[in-house]
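Review form for a predicted model. The reviewer records the input and the model, then writes brief findings.
Reviewer: anonymous (R2)
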Amino acid sequence: MGTPANEILEDAPVVTSRANGILSITLNRPKRRNALSIEVIQALQKLFDDAAGDETIRVLVLGATGTVFCAGYDLQESRENSGNVEFIRRRAVLGVRMTQAMMALPQPVIAKIGGVATAAGCQLVAASDLAIASTDARFGTPGVNIGTWCAAPMVALSRVVHRKHALQFLLTGQLHDAATAQRMGLVNDVVAPDELDDAVERLASLIASKSPYAVALGKRAFYHQLEMGISHAYEYVTELSARNSTAYDAREGVAAFLEKREPRWAGR
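Model under review:
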C-alpha cells in the first residue's frame, strides 16, 4: 500500500508506507523473528503518537516481513540483560505503554498476520481493532514453555476471547492455527496467503471511506462502554447519540443519503 515513507529507511526495524489515508506499519526484523526490542517498541510508540494527531490518516495496518509476524519480546536482548530486573521492568512498561497508545488511537488498527504471532506478538493482534490472517498464521502465548507467564499478553487476550480459550493459550503454550484463532474470536477473517494483502487493503479502504469523525467517536465509545454496566452503558450512548446528531458529518451523511450522492466528510 503506497511507497515507503521518506523519514524511515527500508533497513530500519520498522518501516512505513502510506496511501489513500492508510498508514501501513511493518515490523522489519525477519532475521530476529520481528521480536520487540526496546528500539522497536520506541519506534512503534512514536508512530502511534504521531498518527494520533494526523487527520490525514484514516486507518493503520500493522504487518511484518518474513514468515513470523512477531515472536514477542527479543529473547536475545533478555539474555544479554539476564538478572537485570530494572531493564526487564522498563521494557515491560514501554511495551504496555505502546500497546495502550495503539488502542487509544482515534483511527482503527488492522493487524495483518501472515506468519507466527506469539507472546507479545499475539498481544499486538489481540490489541488491534481488527485482524486478518493468512492460513499460514499461527498464534500462541508460549511463555509457560520457558518457565515464564505471558502476563501482558494475557490482559489483551482475555479481553477479546472467552476466558477458557485465553487460559488454553496461556496454560498450554501451544500454537493454534488461523482457523482456530478465528473460531475463538482472535481474528476476524482467514484468507489464502496470496490474498492477504488484497483482503486487508479492501477492509482498510472501506473503513477509510467512512466519516473519520464517526469512526473516531465510535471506536472510543465502543471501548468505553465495555467497561460499564449495561444500564450505565445505555445512558452513555443515549447522550452520545444526541450529541453525535449535531455533528457536521452526521448532518452531511443524512443529506447525502437523501440526495442520493456521495457524502463529503469534514471530520467534525
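Findings: The longest strand covers residues 14-19.
Further findings: DSSP finds eleven helices and eleven strands in the chain.
Recommendation: see findings above.
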